[in-house]
Design goal:
Layout: E1 2-13, E2 16-27, E3 31-35, H1 42-49, E4 57-62, H2 71-77, E5 78-81, H3 93-102, H4 110-116, H5 132-144, E6 150-154, H6 162-177, E7 181-185, H7 189-195, E8 198-203, E9 206-211, H8 213-219, E10 224-230, H9 236-240, E11 247-250, E12 257-261, H10 263-275, E13 280-287, H11 290-298
Parallel strand pairs: 3-7, 3-8, 5-6, 6-7
Antiparallel strand pairs: 1-2, 1-4, 8-9, 10-12, 10-13, 11-12
Helix pairs in contact: 8-11
The protein binds adenosine-5'-triphosphate.
Domain ABC transporter: 4-229
Subcellular location: Cell membrane
GO molecular function, one term: ABC-type xenobiotic transporter activity
């Protein structure tokens, strides 16, 4: 059953459509990712879902409700971690958790949440004295404290150190296991690949692709990466002309060659090396990553 339905969503600023006909639906219990280059329209899209912006055209439904006309009911079932939030500097962590709990009819117990997010020792600390990563963890707790059916996390782990990031991923998996639907906007490909069941790639206000992480990788023009160090220098132009070779590069420092292509390219590389009597040291053939697929789909850098 879909819990979020976005149909032909459009939002225009200054005569420019920054969201231009976006449609997708998110199933109950799914972790759904939104990826896209800076300015692609991701935050605008999720803020329409949260009822913070009014669409110029199209429709958004959360559990069958319109986030604008049914704002109060949607607020009860949707938790949101906003991208650049601020709280009163003097509010302590505990006061913030208690305050947000009081907004909801059936809040979650904030204490285990605080423990899970490593905030227990900071309960008495004022917001203004928290580090960037601690503020981020508090915002994740505040998004979950209402016991939401749907949680929207915009740049979930930006600013977190690697340990806190991995802990947060585990927490999100637990949140999903408890039946909560997660909508995740992220720039971290590893995060999207690890957590998301499906991903919508948004580029210039439109959906460029919507698939599982594995589906996005396999549909990319360069789903296989071949790398090796040749026993003697090799003409890269010859490699670039091989069947289905999408890109070829060589590391200036150690001469290691990398080719993005398909299984067909792997066979052609091996044949070419044999023909030139070149040995491939440390030959590796691996699947492309979501990073490669993202670059293919958007032509952008993250
Ligand atoms: N209130 C606004 N008024 C005018 N333009 C806006 C407004 N909000 C967003 N935009 C523009 O809309 C476009 C999409 O912005 P949005 O914040 O949705 O992108 P994003 O994909 O979330 O980007 P990022 O990854 O950088 O956070 C950008 O070009 C932005 O400048």
């Amino acid at each position: 059953m879909s819990v979020i339905e976005v149909s032909d969503l459009r939002k225009v600023y200054g005569g420019r459509a920054v969201v231009d006909g976006v449609s997708f639906s998110v199933e109950e219990g799914e972790i759904f990712g939104i990826l896209g280059p800076n300015g692609a329209g991701k935050t605008t899209t999720v803020e329409c879902i949260e009822g913070l912006r009014i669409p110029d055209a199209g429709s958004v439904k959360v559990a069958g409700l319109d986030p604008n006309t049914d704002h109060d009911r949607v607020t009860q079932l949707l938790g949101a971690q906003l991208q650049e939030s601020e709280l009163q500097a003097k509010l302590t962590v505990q006061e913030a958790l208690e305050l947000y709990s009081s907004f909801y009819e059936r809040p979650a117990d904030w204490r285990p949440l605080a423990l899970r997010l490593g905030l227990t020792e900071k309960l008495g600390t004022r917001f203004g004295k928290l580090s960037g990563g601690q503020k981020q963890r508090l915002f994740i707790a505040l998004a979950l404290v209402g016991g939401p059916r749907v949680v929207v996390l915009d740049e979930l782990t930006t600013g977190l150190d690697p340990r806190a990031r991995r802990d947060t991923w585990q927490l999100i998996e637990e949140v999903r296991a408890s039946g909560v639907t997660v909508l995740l906007v992220t720039h971290f490909m590893e995060e999207a690949q690890r957590l998301c069941d499906r991903i919508a790639v948004i580029d210039q206000g439109r959906i460029a692709a919507l698939d599982t992480p594995a589906g996005l990788i396999s549909r990319s023009a360069s789903s296989t990466v071949i790398s090796f160090t040749p026993s003697r220098p090799l003409d890269l132009r010859e490699l670039a002309e091989l069947p289905a070779a999408a890109s070829v590069s060589a590391d200036d420092r150690d001469g290691r060659v990398s080719i993005n292509g398909t299984d067909e390219t792997v066979n052609a590389v091996i044949t070419l090396l044999a023909r030139h009597h070149i040995t491939a040291h440390q030959l590796r053939v691996s699947d492309a990553t979501l990073d490669d697929a993202f670059l293919d789909l958007t032509g952008a850098t993250t």
